[in-house]
From TrEMBL:
This is RagB/SusD family nutrient uptake outer membrane protein. It comes from the Bacteria. The keyword Mitochondrion does not apply. Coiled coil: none annotated. It holds the Pfam family SusD_RagB. Belongs to the SusD family. Residues 1-110 form the RagB/SusD domain. It is found in: Cell outer membrane. The keyword Lipid biosynthesis does not apply. InterPro entries: SusD_RagB_dom (IPR012944), TPR-like_helical_dom_sf (IPR011990). Signal peptide: none annotated.
Length: 110
């Protein structure tokens, strides 16, 4: 995550250094990504590979704003007749919270 933060702050050299710490530990060659966009892609891929099965992918997709296009592409590739939009990423607000504050309205779709 440090590499991701550094990259988003335009510290691409530091981001690549931290990404390469992970790659070196895994016995992989250093990244060739040099721009902010290519480093963002490289860091995303590294997180997917390093954290597989740990439950981080969904939150990475949401944080990066890629959940809707990635999930729709997946559904299409598997022949699943489902599409989602931004409202499908929202969780319901607890009814007890809605009951205690009349200015709170429920998220769309709930």
């Amino acid at each position: 995550m440090l590499a991701e933060v550094q990259n988003e702050l335009a510290n691409t050299t530091d981001a690549a250094t931290n990404l390469n710490l992970i790659r070196t530990r895994a016995g992989l060659a250093a990244t060739t990504a040099a721009t902010q966009a290519t480093l963002r892609t490289a860091i995303d891929l590294e997180r997917r590979l390093e954290l597989v099965g740990k439950g981080h992918r969904w939150f990475d997709l949401q944080r990066s704003g890629n959940a809707v296009p990635v999930m729709n592409a997946y559904f299409q590739s598997t022949g699943t007749l489902v599409t989602i939009d931004a409202n499908d990423l929202l969780l319901p607000i607890s009814q007890s919270q809605v009951n205690t504050d009349p200015s709170i309205t429920q998220n769309p779709g709930y």
